[in-house]
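Galactosylgalactosylxylosylprotein 3-beta-glucuronosyltransferase
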Amino acid sequence: MIPSRIQTKIQIGCFALLICVFLSMLHFLCQREDTSAAINLLHLTKNKLFSLKKKVDLIDRKSRTLSKDNTDVTLFLITPTYARYTQQADLVRLSYTLKHVDNLHWIVVEDSEVQTKLVRKVLKDSQITYTQLNVKTRKDLQLGENDPRWKKHRGVDQRNHALEWIRLNVGWNRRGVVYFADDDNTYHLDLFSEMRTTRKVSIWPVALVGGLRWEGPFVRMEKSSDFSLHGRSASGLFLLIWQHLQ
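Predicted structure tokens:
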């Protein structure tokens, strides 16, 4: 579904285009001294503009209501991280994005035996509500020295550890959305507004995945019908996950 604010922008664009078209037609009729047709066109333009204005106002009201209804939804962002040269830079960059998001709880889980001072300092400096956790990846999930990065899933133990923390520490009556945010990704602020509307599960396309331009859902008739995974359809996996969530 197209976000309300984008719908509003589209409507305003159509509004401006419509004005240009009608003004051009009016100019043409005036040059031909066709007064009757020009008056009819003016009335038609007036009616169209009023109709379009009502639609824009309705979308704006719905958008404001939706935003108001979801202000109490807490976003729990789970970020697995591990020691590397760019770790601090990646976490700082992500924290500067998250600073602009209201009602957010950042859960950072280190792939480490202990919690490090480096990560703790980044979290404290961010002034974001946070929880610092740590758990070492099991040996059967660790990559070998010559293994390609795609051979085994990364961050699995860290994400599961964060989910367990949420189950134990967040009340069931609290409205919230859980999102897995990797520390080396870039996020648009609009995404956080959209995810607050989640009722069961939400999925978004992700750009620049490895050598691919994108991975994500196929949407038909405002519903997700399939999922592109590594450039191929993953309909069987998508159907299995979707049925589990119903």
